[in-house]
Amino acid sequence: MKPCLVFTLLSAAGVILARESEADKLNLPEDFTIPYMVYLQSSPEPCVGTLIHPEWVLTAAHCPLPVKIRLGVYQPSVKNKKEQIRNYSLTVPSPEFKAQSLENDLMLIKLSKAAALNSHVGTIAISMEPLAFNDSCFIPTWTWNEYKNLSDPDILTWINQYSLPLNDCQNMVGQIMAARIMCVGQPLNILSRTKEVSAAPAICDGRLHGILSWAKGSITLGSEGFFTEVYHHARWILKVINNS
Ligand SMILES: *[C@@H]1O[C@H](CO)[C@@H](O)[C@H](O)[C@H]1NC(C)=O
Ligand SMILES: *[C@@H]1O[C@H](CO)[C@@H](O)[C@H](O)[C@H]1NC(C)=O
Ligand SMILES: *[C@@H]1O[C@H](CO)[C@@H](O)[C@H](O)[C@H]1NC(C)=O
């Protein structure tokens, strides 16, 4: 696995797509996937998971437990033959997760059977260090063209964003919370009916740096998003993976 290479290719693709109109946006090969993106199908709403090890998915602790885990997915509303379907055998929310304030909003999910890694399904490394100042992050998620209750989303979309300086982040969420949060985006007044799947990853410098905890609007249209910073939890993540 070469996360840097994958990141570079995807960033390039993102830039090209961003310049095209919404209608042209899906002009991708039918079997296109972002290999580490995992679709956590659940009720009432799905989440994005990120494959960080053949047997482990990282997502947000606010997500419901998945009913079905799908790997190698491009459009969740469409089944494809290359998809891998799994259940979970273990779920481990961060012991520091606070449901009220959404602090430390991370959960590890162990797959019932390891993912078969190929060109459609692959892992991404977690970050062990804070993000360098003003680094660009690639943030993918799925959205619904038209949201219907309990339907699967049909669009894969993404944005490239710079992480905001700590000061700006503190102004938005307060000093204490900002200590373990990564902020992107800006206050926007966009009238959009776009609904996004929760727990999108932020891939910066080829590594998984954040998991989206909450947002003030549509993150893929540039609104403010607040990510749990993964590196603070890297030791806990490695400990769980090595001992479970
Ligand atoms: C998935 O695993 C959970 C926990 O082990 C179990 O309760 C559930 O019935 C399983 N679901 C399926 C579809 O096998
Ligand atoms: C971050 O980098 C981008 C691109 O290089 C630049 O446009 C922007 O002004 C930088 N932001 C800060 C706060 O330095
Ligand atoms: C969505 O579906 C769930 C489960 O069937 C139901 O409880 C809920 O009321 C529905 N919501 C809407 C807005 O239809």
From TrEMBL:
Please tell me where this protein is predominantly located: secreted
* One GO BP annotation of this record: positive regulation of reproductive process
The cellular location(s) given in this protein's UniProt record come to:
Secreted
Superkingdom of origin:
Eukaryota
In alphabetical order, the GO MF annotations are: serine-type endopeptidase activity
- The answer to whether UniProt assigns keyword Hydrolase to this entry is yes
| Domain (Peptidase S1) ranges | 35-242
Against PROSITE patterns, the record matches this protein to: TRYPSIN_DOM, TRYPSIN_HIS
Q: Which residues form the signal peptide?
A: 1-18
Pfam families from the UniProt entry: Trypsin (PF00089)
Q: Name one GO cellular component term.
A: secretory granule
User: Which keywords does this chain's UniProt record carry?
Assistant: Disulfide bond, Hydrolase, Protease, Secreted, Signal
Cited PANTHER family: 1700074P13RIK PROTEIN (PTHR24271:SF44), KALLIKREIN-RELATED (PTHR24271)
Put simply, this protein is called: Probable inactive serine protease 58
The scientific name of the source species is Acinonyx jubatus (Cheetah)
